[in-house]
Amino acid sequence: MLAEAELFHVHFTRWRVAIVGAMALIAVVGGIFLYLTRNAALWWWIALQACAYLLQAAFCLRYERKPLQPGSREFSHWMWLWTLQTAATGLISGALVFWIPADQLGLLLAAIMISGTFAIGEACACGHKRLVFAAVISQALMACIALVIHAKMPLAVVACVLFAAVVVHFGCELNRAMCDVIVQRLRARQLATQLEQGQQRLLEASTSNR
After folding, report:
1. At what angle do helices 129-149 and 156-209 cross, to 10 degrees?
2. pTM
3. Cα of 193 vs its chain's centroid, Å
4. Which tens digit of pLDDT belongs to each residue from 163-202?
5. Which of 5, 37, 105, 156 is the most exposed place for a label (fewest CB within 10 A)?
6. How many whole angstroms separate alpha carbon 17 and alpha carbon 14?
């Protein structure tokens, strides 16, 4: 628990770069599809994604000004709120397929691949296992709904689900490996502190015997 909290804080320090990069990517992706499809409704997708990331930035600013103690009830509540924010962003990202004309198969597949790329990026960037599930599953869920309702490609749902499962597994394994590194570092720090305290006690005992 503490290792995941520390890992989250390590990733949290780069939130400005992550938000700016995500919004730039949204602008590029949305602009390309807007040019290729001539569908002005894509502005809504761009606006929704931008608003979602701006809301995340606002929460990050608030948290940065008043960090919470890992393991506390307030930190747990904040993490659930952050998870909901991540899931909302994932749902909007996966909804990109809805804005692509159903008869343009190539662009539909490109939109699905881009949504999958977003999911991989979230899985690599998230510093908490709960955020990995929220980001990937929300995107996969919306993409599956779009494939069935909009694209009329129900068989593609199987591939989408399998891909999401692989990405979730990868994200969780990456999270576990990084947590293991942090746990080892914390243990090494604890042993170093105990050794220093032992040496200090020996020094004090030696001084008192004199």
Report:
1. 170
2. 0.80
3. 34
4. 889 988 888 888 787 777 777 877 787 788 878 877 777 7
5. 105
6. 6
